Amino acid sequence: MNRRGRRAWRSVFTLYLPVTPFVLFALFPLYFMFVTSLKKNSELYDPTSIPFLIRRGVTFGHYQLLSGDTLFWSWFLNSLLVSLGATIVSVVLGILAAYPLARLRFPGGDSFGVAIFVTYLVPPSLLFLPLTTVVNRLGLSDSLWSLVVTYPTFLVPFCTWLLMGYFRTVPREIEECAMLDGCGRVQTMLRILLPVAVPGVICAALFAFTLSWNEFLYALVFVSPAELKTMTVGVFSELIRGDIYYWGGLMAVAFIGSLPIVIAYVFFLDYYVSGLTAGAVK
Amino acid sequence: MRLDIIAHLQLQTKKAAEVQSRSGHDLTALGPGLGDADLYFDYLADLNDVATDVAPKNGGWLNPDDYLIRGKWKLLPWWQPPFPMAVRTDLLEQIGEKSPDTWEDWLRVGRKGKAIGHPFGTALGHSGDANVTLLSILWSYGGSYVSKDGKTITINSKETRAAMEFVKRLYSEAMDPEVVAWDDASNNRCLNAGKCIAIHNPISAYESAKKDKVVIPGSQKEIADFIDHVHTPKGPAGRKATTGFWCVGIWNFSKNVDLAKDFLRYHFQPDNQNRWVEAGHGFNMPFLTSLTKHSVYKSDRQYRFIPEVAKVTVPPSWPGPTTAASQQVWDLYIIPDMFAQYATGKMTVDQAIAWGEKEMQEIYAGRRRKP
Q: Considering B288, B311, B334, which residue would you say is the last residue of a domain?
């Protein structure tokens, strides 16, 4: 066996085998959702069936139910639009808030930082009642804008806090060089800091997108028409009817609903890891 | 006209938000239970005129006094899913039982069923089904938790002790321990999975088994063909049951109160109610006398006892009036917790009753209105 072959064998034992249990653990929910979504109802009810295998044939009936009998794809699109809109707004606001808190010295700066973090800790279950009044006065009830406007209440503090940490890892000196060359404060932020801080920004955006994608309470309270519901709420309304749960359909939604998040993380994994760790250790 | 479907578990949140912002829907579902109307009394339009218009056309309200909140029609009772006993006839035959009718009969059935791997199933956890079944047992043994005056907590009685002793035996001899973690869907699943011999539940389990053509495990026989529904059981003190009382009300901050009332008058017209009950396969029984005799209940043998169950169905606060406090007792699952704590051995019977009594007294004291 040559050196390359030996190295490959070694990596099987030192890398692939040790990692396999973790990969299986991480992928298990996705696998279980997918398998369940393809099972016939009669098999789903059978306590003697093996939960992890399909033994009585595959059915796409649950996916057909979603597409034909519910507004699932509208809900999916609504979730996507709201999540993208809220993420863009929140990341922009987060950058604008994090930069001065990380870089500028002004009276109460530290307190502002802590206050923003404390804001993030206020649970939505307390905020939804007063926010309902705000949404109503803005005339945004029963529209997707109500969510784009309210999601930043929990996304901006989070993005700000995360980006503050990341911005502080960027050496101040490169900004000072830019200023010596004639850049103003805003130009320095846009042309020097942000390009360096892309991993942090992507990390914040990924988190913001995930939080928006999974959000339930505000989407339930602020939007009622079936065609405007987001996926999380629509599924609850249509696939849980009293004491009847449409397990196959629910698992199909869970599987499809996971995919955008999975895809986003796969594309931006490297940025995400470096963004998270850089912000975390400094 | 727009109808929005909101899952029943999320209705409380939605209603709280609408009242807070004084905006939202014109009509709102209230329930399960009638207590919502007391909780939101100041925000609901009076429906005396609509209730008076609707009743004569439909043979009158079933039990009109039950639906009055502080003496007023603040809601129209909409529909109820009566709770018969759903039983596997093949298993009943296998264990040599015929026509069980009392709670003691069902304990015996459950004991024999459990011995052959088919236990009895009723939730003892935080679910509407647990509230319904345990209140039914409590009343059937002569107990109650609040008196007619709506103030005196009556849970500490020898009748309650008898009911709790019965449930402890039911739990330990006839059921599996998993029932303390059951939600509303669990007993349906247990019956349709071919495991449970019987469950105390509306006809939804049967309907979904029929629709999905669920088979008995290990055979090709459809399980729906072996499910029957019989009367809700009786106890030493008689036969009583409750259920989710689903009602409808109109927010008084709505800009369309009169239109909403007109819609209710339209919806409660006999023809529309007839079609509505038919479409619901008998699951949704209106609180209107003539509708309890609807032909749908004769269209399938499975439905034959549903009108009978409806006759013995009372509001969850019985014999006390419906109040926000009674709704809170329901929403906080005080009754299921009290029964479960004794049944599972966490508390003695006296401790469990004392705990339940204290919880209820605090709830009723906290909700007491100033004169």
A: B311
Asked if B187 and B109 sit in the same domain, the reply is: yes
Whether B1 and chain A come into contact, CB under 8 Å, resolves to: no
Interface of B with A in 243-272 (CB under 8 A): none
Q: Which two tokens stand for residue A58?
A: 């595959």
Where are the domains positioned within chain A?
A: 3-45, 69-281
Q: B22: domain range?
A: 8-81+243-311
Q: Are residues B203 and B257 in the same domain?
A: no
Q: Is residue A242 less than 8 Å (CB to CB) from chain B?
A: yes
- Closest residue of chain A to B201, computed from CA coordinates: A243
Residue of A2, A162, A21 whose CA lies nearest to A87: A162
Q: How confident is the model at residue A50 (pLDDT cuts 50, 70, 90)?
A: confident
**Least CA distance to A226: which residue of chain B?**
B4
A129 close to B (CB below 8 A): yes
Q: Is B169 on the interface with A (CB under 8 A)?
A: no
Number of structural domains in chain B: 2
User: Binning pLDDT at 50, 70 and 90, where does residue A282 land?
Assistant: very low
B residues 72..101 contacting A (CB < 8 A): 81
pLDDT tens track for B95-118: 999 889 999 999 999 999 999 999
Q: Cβ–Cβ contacts within 10 Å for residue A273, how many?
A: 12
User: Are B51 and B184 in the same domain?
Assistant: no
Residues of A in contact with B205 (CB under 8 A): 243
What value of ipTM does the predicted structure carry? 0.79
pLDDT interval class at A6 (50, 70, 90): confident
Which option is the CATH number for A69-281: 3.40.50.2300, 1.10.3720.10, 3.30.70.890, 1.25.40.10?
A: 1.10.3720.10
Provide the whole-model pTM: 0.84
Cα distance from B354 to chain A (closest Cα, Å)? Answer: 32
Of B239, B255, B282, which residue sits at a domain end? Answer: B239
Q: Do B217 and A48 touch (CB under 8 A)?
A: yes
Residues B199 and B255 in one domain: no
B293 closest CA partner among B321, B316, B270: B270
Closest Cα partner for B230 from B110, B84, B104, B122?
B84
Q: Which residues of B touch A42 (CB under 8 A)?
A: 212-215
| B318, B312 Cβ separation under 8 angstroms | no
C-alpha to C-alpha distance for B4 and A235, rounded to whole angstroms: 13
Question: Within a domain: residue B198?
Answer: yes
CB A230 within 8 A of CB A79: yes
C-alpha distances out from residue B86 to B121, B122, B191, B306, Å: 10, 11, 8, 11
- Percent of chain A residues topping a pLDDT of 70: 97
Please tell me if residue B55 touches chain A, with a CB cutoff of 8 Å. Answer: no
